[in-house]
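BUG: 3D viewer hangs when loading the predicted structure for this chain

Environment: internal workstation, default settings.
Expected: structure renders.
Actual: progress bar stalls at 90%.

Input used:
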Amino acid sequence: MKRFFAIFLTLSLAAALTACGPKVPQTPAATDPVSTQPQTTEDVAPSTTPSVQHTPSPEAATELSTEAATQPDAAFPSVAVCNRRVVETTQQQTWRYGFTLTYDDITVCTGDSLAEARIEESLARDQAEIRTMADQTLADLAQYQQDLGELPSASSLQQSLIPTRVDSRIVSFSGRLDYYTAGAIHPNVVLKALTFDTVTGARLTLKDLIPSDDSLAVLEQKVLDRLEEMGPDGFYPEYENIVAFHFNPASESSQDWYLTGQGMVCFFSPYDIAPYAAGSITILIPYSELDEILAPAYLPPETAATNGFLSAALAGNRTPDFQATLDANGEKIDLTVGGTVTQVLVETVESQDGVSYTVTGALFAADQLNDGQVLRLSAFLPDAMSNLRLTYTGTGGTVTRYISQSGKDGSILLLDES
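Structure tokens produced before the viewer hung:
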């Protein structure tokens, strides 16, 4: 069903990946000026370092020793995810309304160049297919304009890839494609997910995660039980058959899951098992119920001990270890590590009242950063309310701060939630 709507509306996006460290923005086509802006998402929960090796699916697996899998370089985080938010707008001279494409340009850093290259290649293939569909959408809009004389409204596509688990064996993304075509009754959304083995760089399949057919059947029944608890009256009569299709390793829908710090999330986009009004449906199966189901290598590890902190200042002259961009021309901010910190997360947020905040995106996630490492952020900082939230585990436990700028001297401030 998701493929039907994506192809029918022919909307999509692309993002190109580079190696770790400072990222060089790509130059868009001359007709597509680029700016940056936040995108709606949900909270993410990076995890920490597991210690058991597992060989992923044959078509993508690169065998590494158990020693390499269990002992990452202590001077490098097990895995980090850097984002560059991009907006491209196409406005033909004869169009009253244009087409806006928003996407997250992701870099995954593992400390292993081969694994990084394979993850980059996999994401690039996925995004190239979607870019082709977006280009076709522009052609369709041009034909619409020619046939009807004027586009009735603007069209848009917003894509996000949100890291939901980040550690030395797994990086998992919850993705969504929000799109609206000129003249449509309502916008639509398609959910997707990508999960990679960070030791080999292989994109994991459901069969990699759950090798046993019997265990797969157990997981399917757990999802059906949760749906039954939700009240199946609002689902399509044949929803159980559709769920079974999602757990058939040969089907495209068998990729409709991702991992978090709490468990495995199985999801259904609008129209999958219920009408549009039901919205997206997500089922979380906690790891406590997956001990005998998941391949042991992909169960989460215990949280590492931490004794550090993060400080913030205007960017200095040193080359940062990581870079994440919300606004390419924005203020340059360096977050510097003292000691060791874990479960580091930088989110974009917005607030109407300065008290409660809504998460609108994720710029950076890492399971561990070490003494002296620097993360450079590029973002416009509002005068009144912060638009960036920093969370990490360090000395004293979990720390949450809002990144702001002093109106007096321009220095960077890390403010408490209160």
